[in-house]
Amino acid sequence: MKREAGLRHGEQPGILSLFRRKAEHLEFLSHLLPKSRPSLLRRLQPKLRPSSLHRLPALLLIPALLLLGPAGCWDRQELNELGIISATGVDLTDTGRWEVSYQLVIPNAISAQGAYVGGSSSPVNVFTSVGDSFRGAVSRTTQEMSRRVYFSHNQVVVISEEAARRGINNLMEAYMRNGDSRETVTVLVTEGSARTILEQLLPMERISGVGINRLITLEEKYGGNFRQISMFEMMQDLLSPVHITAVPGIGLSGSGAAVDTVDAAKTTHTGAKVRLQKVAIFKNNKLAGWLSTHENRGLLWVTNRVKGSTVSFPCQGERQKLNSIRLKKQKTRVTPVRKGSGWLMKIESKATGVLMEYNCPGSMRKPQDLLPVEASIEAELKRDMEDGILAAQRLKADAAGFGNLLHLKHKEEWKQIESDWNERGFPKVEIEISVHVKLAKTGRSIESYNEAFEKSRKKE
Amino acid sequence: MALIVFSISWIKPLSSAQNKVILDKGGVFLSASKGKKGGSAAGGSGGGRQGNSSGTKPPPLGRRVTATPLSLSLAVNAHAIRKQFSDSADLRLRMTASPAAPGIRLAVLYLQGIVDENNIRENILDKLQSASAIEVAPRGSKAGDICSRLRSEVITSGLTESVTTLERALDALLLGCCLVLIDGSGEVLAAEASGGSVRAIAEPTSQTVIRGPQQGFTESLSTSIGQIRRIIRSEQLIVETQRIGRQTCTEVSLIYMKGTARPEMVDEARRRLSEIDVDGIVDSGYIEEYIQDKTFTFFPTLISSERPDQAAAYLLEGHFAIIVDGSPFALLAPVTFFRFFQSPEDYYQRFDIASFLRIIRMSAFLITLHLPAIYIAITTFHQEMMPTNLLISLSAQREGVPFPALVEALIMELTFEVLREAGVRMPKVIGPAISIVGALVIGTATVQAGLVSAAMVIIVAFTAISSFVAPQMNIANAARLMRFLFMISAGMFGFFGIISIDLILIIHLAGLHSFGVPYLSPMAPWIKGSWRDTILRMPRWSMKLRPAIAQDGNRKRQASGQPEDQQKVDQQLKGQKP
């Protein structure tokens, strides 16, 4: 009966007719279509009423098929089946196996209103698994974790000095190959145990992994002493011609007890706190040594990586650094020049800044009055750079990236010296530094307060 | 006399041969008249389909296949008619007499409720009883002559006809005529007296605007046509009325602007309407379902509008309108997808805010479709795409919820649909109860009980609000249904599933047509210049052309745009300045 009705209206029975076009263009609408597609022009078929009820079963079949899906969604993972990891620590056991620590976020403890202080339970939980390989250790987490560890929101990887001295190539391999462990994660090195760092609670931060990541981001942006480095950038550095990278160090400073319980965080001061300190220089995948903060800043000037920094400098002829300038724009250009059997690096640096604190006598009203100020800042920067390069030369690690420049600009010579550049070539490099600092603004006041005070006293 | 001439044009007196032929096909009373300019007979009837459009299909009023001549006896005729109606209670018969026809018994017969009884009293009964014998019935006149004399000189109803068969008498009664039966005559006088109480013009309930006309269509066809005619006072506005429905004989008017609407398109609409053969048309929704291009789609291909101003604007742009007696919703076609996001108010307020609102409406449509699906996809497949803090916050909310995100979302969405339907169907008196149940029980209690997460409630709430933004309810209904497809697909395949359904949807939309107009035009296919009134609404002076559906050669709708005028004004101002 239904079929008859369908046939009467010139339709073919069957599921396929579902997909057959019924209404088509009227010819008068041909101008609406591009001329090059005449095939789209069809006449409107006589079409009257929905007699094709025989299609209904086919239509009902579609949702039925769709419902099969939810029952068997193979890679579905609900939010409450995940153990979100906010920080990872890499240590080495006494027997030389990898000891990977995880800072697991406890969402319930965090999403309650307010910060972690006052909360009854700890916002994070740190646990460790051991294995011969990095991912092997990770796979053992299932033995003690009720949930799948989820690394996509991992913020930092802290590597202990011990593990770093052994070599981080395994870690690199694991991070490069796996989709769930992001290579944009921030890397830090600690002198002690990495697990200890993960156990610390930070003031203001509910998840300390996130907090540490913010710490280093902020420092890079405003402090200029450290450079935040991700796993990916580290890989780029280590695969560059000089095979050197610098990773910020982190450690506990202060004498008091570590803040690793919620109760300890309930006081107004923290005893031992997490602090960025020193910089680890990696050479050929292994930790080669440490640089001080000051030395690292010099190297960052040379490698053009300071985003913003506050520099203290002395008055002319004095030693005590009473004055500060906030440097904003900074551009360094290094030109390698052949000198005898070795190389001379001509380093030209330009920086612009705003005076933030000035305690020296003297007028600053005329532009030429600023020249001596600028000169003393220049001297300060020059000293920073020299110290940094000297320190790197002492470690026999080209953290200034001079080798990369030679590789780019003097390809033939580089091929000859490439093999022992860090050991023999780089320590002998001579440097010639010229710095030009421009004082863009002196801030809201012109002369120093001391000067103004002296003047007012003289008037009396 | 003019009135009589007019009445002739209303129901053309037929020669007996013609009469016979058409009677055999049935529906002579309804199909015979060729009032193309039916708007002139806006009194409620007149007009009709064109004689050439009938073809092979069965007659629209299949019951009238015979032609029984009326008897000479009033009693026999009255009895025959009453028998046909099985003595229905609303059939009223009143015996009377007239000085105009001395000694001849007369009877007035009508169906109560569909006629205006005051009208009958004034124009028929009073006139019959007060007519003087001398002027009407010269001595020796026969009863047969009396009929035409009564018709031409006594009865003052607008339209009259003399009926000679029982079937036509029945039709006339059903259409709201008053029959005057004359004893001794084989003819019955049918006088137009349709009326009865109708709803007064009120504000549209489903399409409200802040600025703009505040009147809506009513159930009365003649009133609705009059509302459009009041806006477009042009002889180019054509109203073609036909009756559809074997039992209901519903008047359906096809309205268009001659010279602006494409004749081929109007022919197609006329053809589709004329092919409808069903026992009854109760609302314009019936017609919509019969004449739409595609049945198995979520998307409407006709706009149903409650607003005369919107209908008039569409007519001016070359669309046609179909108004069904008894339905306050006019059908406007052909329409494209983008039309459903345009409110009549867009044209009454500034172009910049109108454009902004259109973008908001489209975004809301996309949100209605996608938001729950995106939530499901992100929380079950793509957790890495969220900011860490959001992930942890959501994760804490999901902690302890016993269902997967998909089931959670389905529960909430279905709950909302139930609430919404209950809200529509519930008597207004207990309306507040549903809000309490909805807000407290569903919103707060389920979250506190740990059945669903708080984020899910937010998602469902926002989705629901977004679904109310569309100015056309039927496109929002399309989104309501498709949302579930998206959710299930997202629950199975994550974003991949959402994009798949999106692609299928776009392909489907690109294949849809509304009376031959591609549904996604003027975007796909791209029609140059038509973007000005699609997603954005450009200033009126820049919309110089009608949409491409308007007839070729008549697309220009305004003399010149503003820039040239502005230049002239500027020049004048400069010239006047010293």
Automatic annotation (TrEMBL), chain B:
One of its GO terms (cellular component) is membrane. Residues 35-64, 550-578 are annotated as: Disordered. The keyword Transferase does not apply. Keywords: Membrane, Transmembrane, Transmembrane helix. It holds the Pfam family GerA. GO terms for biological process: spore germination. The chain crosses the membrane at residues 320-341, 362-381, 451-472, 484-510. Residues 559-578 have a biased composition (Polar residues). Residues 38-50 have a biased composition (Gly residues). InterPro entries: Spore_Ger, UPF0353/GerABKA_families. Belongs to the GerABKA family. This is Spore germination protein.
